[in-house]
Every structure is written in structure tokens, then in C-alpha cells.
Specification:
Two copies of one chain form a homodimer.
Chain A: H1 2-17, H2 23-32, H3 39-48, E1 52-56, E2 60-64, H4 74-85, E3 87-93, E4 96-101, H5 106-116, E5 121-126, E6 130-135, H6 141-151, H7 156-159
Antiparallel strand pairs in A: 1-2, 3-4, 4-6, 5-6
The structure holds a DNA duplex.
DNA sequence: CTTCATTTTGAATATTTATACATTTCTGGT
DNA sequence: ACCAGAAATGTATAAATATTCAAAATGAAG
């Protein structure tokens, strides 16, 4: 479970970064990165990540993540980016994480996280500029960060 | 050639309109509309139109036209929509068409049309708020309109 | 109207991608 | 620790899609 999330993030980034034109190609890339999986799993992951294949001048076809996929639609997506801008900082303590935000942002961001229902996070409590996240037993800080980036890609600027 | 353009427009609209989940399904729809073609041709058309297949809650997969496909990228796409807003009117006379635009828009729009190199249009001459289009022999007014919509989808609001 | 070159298309096929099914791996409760 | 149920994965295969190759259509030039 834990590994699945991480793998999907890696797949997503491979796609965002590279010019990949078939699942086989992507499969080799992932294996090079140390992930063990088969084409079947890859196909399922791509479905979950809403990856699409479109024609491309140079390669014939490339995999892309259409704008606004993963987040229903474009408007939702830009709202998400807006919210990500309100993110200031995250600190960990035991099985808890505390996110500090710009004033007023906390509950909106918490709602986004809640709706995504990430495996890593059991629950959230939000004030005005602070969110408390309760982490699932066994989840690492790095897992948490990956999970949050998966929900709000723009956070990568601040967390990656 | 003429028919090919028209067919591709019909395909594009079927995709924009409907929830189509396989080429076979789309093939039947096109045949119902009186187009004669095979899956092979359809596959090529979808490639040309930069249509993509992404996962969908209800249907498993649907065909979509990712935002900004057909036009290189999103920024280009919004510029295109902006320009389409400057379009006022089109009138035909013999093998010529005259587009009236808001002041200053004409040459930008003409450049977009020139770059698309539509079969239907031999050439354009633009002033400040007027574009003269020379139509290819045998091209109908309806062909022209379809062709322009194919270039600037947003024109459909004003021409469809 | 021919002829040649180019483009488009279909049929058959290769390639790619999705999924059914069986198996393994997790998770939670006792 | 053990078991039952759920989720994830691989294997094998079905289904879907892209491409090769040959034929037909179209266009340009004489």
C-alpha cells in the first residue's frame, strides 16, 4: 500500500518529465528505478492517474497528464494551485504533522486533503492558519510528503 | 480532401459532445452519420486531431481532446480564444470571403489562419479590422465555416 | 485526356493496452 | 499468532489500437 503510492508518484513524475511513448518503455524506466511491476499493474496505475496518450510530432505518441485530470476539471485545478500557494510549512512530531498556512487557508486546504482520502492520513483538524494531520501508524515523513504532493502537485515547489 | 476535413470535424464534434469509449463505438456513430470509413482511418484521424483516451468514472475510458491540444500548448490556446473574441462577422462573395474583426485584430487572426494552412483557403490579406480570404475553387461556404471552426473552435459560438 | 507523383484509404496484421482469473499480500479482529 | 475478508499484483489472454503494404483516388503538368 505504502509502496503503491510512492510508485504512482514516480510514474507520474516520469511522465511529466519525459517523453514516453509506450507502456513498455515506461515499464523499463520504472524497473531501472528499482520498482518491480508488470505491464498490467502499469496499465492500472495509468488509469488511476488519468494518464492519456496523444499524438506527438517527434515520437508518434506520448503519454501526458491532461490539464485538470486528477482534479475533475481545470477550474478545480487552478483553485488547487491557489490553495497550494497558501501553504507555508510542515513539521512532524511522532505520528502527527502540523501544517502552517497563510491566514484563512487552513480549512480549505484541509478539505482538499480530506476529500482525497490519502491512505497515509487518518484525519485532519484545521484552525485558521494551522492544520493538524494524524498520520497512519508506520507512515514515514517522506511518505507523507509524497502523498501531499500527489494531492497538490504544486506543493512540490515547496517540499521537493 | 474536402471530405476528409469535413469528416474530421464531425469526429471532433462527436468526441466533444458524447461519451465515447472506443474507436469501434465511434466508428458506428460516424457510419450512422453517413461517413464511410474503417477503424484504420479513424485511428489516423484521432492521431491527427490529437484525441486522447483517459479513464472515466462511469465508462472506464473516454475519448477527450486535451485542453490546448491541436494548438501546441495552453497559452497558445488561450491566445486563440482571445483572438476568436475579436471576430465579428464573415460574408461571402464568389470565391472570396471577408471577415470583419474588432479594430486591430485582423492581422493576428490572419496569421493564425495562414499557419493552419487549411486546404480550403488559398491565401489571406489583412488590414486593421478586415481580412480578405481567397477560397479554393469548388469550396463551399459551409466548407469554409467548418474549416475556420476547425482552426478556432471558439468560433463555433458565432458561426455554428 | 494521359501520365506521373502524391495522398488517402482499407484489409490484414503487428503492436499495444486492458482485464479475467488465480494467487499473494495486506489489514483488522479475535 | 491465526484467520477472514479485502486489496494488490502477475500471468495469460482478450480487446483495442496503430501500422504495413497494396490498391484506389486525387492533383498537377503536359
Amino acid at each position: 500500500m505504502k509502496n503503491r503510492t510512492k510508485r504512482q508518484l514516480a510514474i507520474k513524475q516520469a511522465i511529466l518529465g519525459g517523453r514516453i511513448s509506450s507502456q513498455d518503455e515506461l515499464l523499463h524506466i520504472m524497473k531501472d528505478q528499482g520498482y518491480e511491476l508488470t505491464q498490467a499493474t502499469l496499465s492500472r496505475d495509468l488509469k488511476i492517474l488519468k494518464v492519456a496518450k496523444v499524438s506527438d510530432q517527434a515520437l508518434g505518441y506520448v503519454y501526458v497528464i491532461p490539464e485538470g485530470a486528477n482534479t475533475e476539471n481545470q477550474r478545480e485545478n487552478s483553485r488547487m494551485n491557489f490553495l497550494a500557494d497558501g501553504f507555508r510549512d510542515i513539521q512532524f512530531s511522532g505520528n502527527m504533522a502540523v501544517i502552517k498556512t497563510m491566514p484563512g487557508y487552513a480549512s480549505s486546504i484541509a478539505v482538499v486533503i480530506d476529500n482525497a482520502e490519502p491512505y497515509e492520513i487518518i484525519g485532519t483538524i484545521a484552525g485558521d492558519d494551522t492544520i493538524l494531520l494524524i498520520m497512519r501508524e508506520g507512515v514515514t515523513q517522506s511518505d507523507m510528503i509524497n502523498s501531499l504532493i500527489l494531492i497538490m502537485p504544486k506543493l512540490e515547489d515547496k517540499l521537493g
